[in-house]
Amino acid sequence: MALAISLLSLQPRPSPSFFTCHLTSPSPGIPLSPPPPPPPPPALFLSQDPKSNPISSSSCALHCPHFQSCSGCTHEYNLHHPPILDEAIEFFRSIGVSNFTFDSCRLWGWRCRAKLAVRGSSIKPLIGLYEEGTHNVVDIPECKAHHPSINAAVDLLKQAMAELNIMPYDEDKGTGELRYVQMAVTTYNTSLPAAERYRKGKVQIALVWNSRNESSPSFGKLNALANYMWIRGGPKREVHLIHSIWANFQTSTNNVIFGNRWRHLLGERDFWEHVGGIDVSMVPSSFGQANTRAFDSLLRKLQKYVPYGASVVDLYAGAGVIGLSLAATRKCRSVKCVEVNKEAKLSFEKTVSRLPTTSDCSISWHQADTSKEPLPWLMGSDVVVVDPPRKGLDSSLLTALQSLSSIKIKHNLPESTERKVKTEKRPWILRQRETSTHSDGQMAQDEIQSLPQTLIYISCGWDSFKEDCMSLLSSKEWHLDKAHGYNFFPGTQSVEVLAVFKRGSGVNIKRKKSGKKKRITSGAFGHP
Ligand SMILES: C[S@@+](CC[C@H](N)C(=O)[O-])C[C@H]1O[C@@H](n2cnc3c(N)ncnc32)[C@H](O)[C@@H]1O
Question: Where is the active site (predicted)?
Fold first, then answer.
């Protein structure tokens, strides 16, 4: 997500409404949705040579009325081929990865999670993103990036605000009632035929209310707002648009969107999506990927790089979706998820509750800062998965990854590592292998002495990825084996990267590869 949206952490807003290149049509039943964009081009999955793609730029254009004013999208044409893609192809080629693939994913209506500022007046609310470099909110009712259910829910919210005289927040004065709204779409409804699930997605609405808590005088108005929307978009309507409504209370004058206090108001409390082969629970307070379908594609590719029975550590794990998807699909021996935001734990726990019970995997979630003493997290794992924020890896983690061999040679844990492993308080361990000696805060000795042989890096920040990648390669500790790109944010100058590094400089492997047709990097997943 390449856009500087002032001080606020609203996501950038790539493009249009709702059809992918897969020729789905708009839901006839969803009220208030924008008119359909021009017919989309045929399915487009570039998997061989991204440069040779034959789709014309006009057929993959944004066609969004907000493009000039909204800061969300930076590119109007060639949504299937972000300009940065050429640079990515060249970068990977220059470091020896010639079979880089790119999945252009769904080009319109892909955004299933949006945080929108609410400004203006009750009669004419503006609900959208900041204009670049300002705090002026641009109303984007026909955003082509949004899942159409989001646009429909925004429309309903505006009606409710006008009817009930709900005042939008005024940043200068600190007055008003509704500050932001987060809309998240679930496309997981097993009572619908699979082909209809995406377009009939339902919206979890989180209203960020300018008061301290439920006992504030304006709470009655908040309830009225929620009820208004529920009556018109809830389960009793022909088109069930709204999944649930939450309140978040925030009075701070800074630019942080959410306060710490949440309250579930209406609808189902649990919100499920299905990605990477598992049911995933998401609470409104934790990180969730905006592009559900693209994330699913990435996860399915990622799974192929993790051997059955591997021991995995998932760093920057959020609610552990990646780690848990691997636990279920790769029958991992153990999966440790490490995440700094404690809010993600609840979603993690719920997701675990729906994992297949056949899985015999030790699964744990740890609230921890990866930048502080990262080494203990790496030790004992065959595969390290990192999915950092846009700024890339914390330097301490990068250093630890660059110097694994020196630790291996010592065959001893550094004192601080040993201490940390032994004193960690109550990691959240869910399941244990019967044979494991692994218990709260202690790792089995065999795990302690093993070191990762595969590093899977998922990046949403191209510039930081390039730097981290070069640092890893220059250490000769890792070589890059495979790289894939995903169009997570069509219309922006961004590419999501899935990069697979293997231990060692890769020189010998490459030499052997050129001699034989196919070679499996032997021992790649074994312990050193
Ligand atoms: C790009 S998100 C990935 C989340 C998760 N892998 C997913 O796909 O749902 C990055 C995550 O890293 C977490 N994070 C950021 N800095 C961290 C740190 N120093 N230590 C641990 N987690 C961190 C954030 O809270 C966020 O959940």
Answer: 460 (nucleophile)
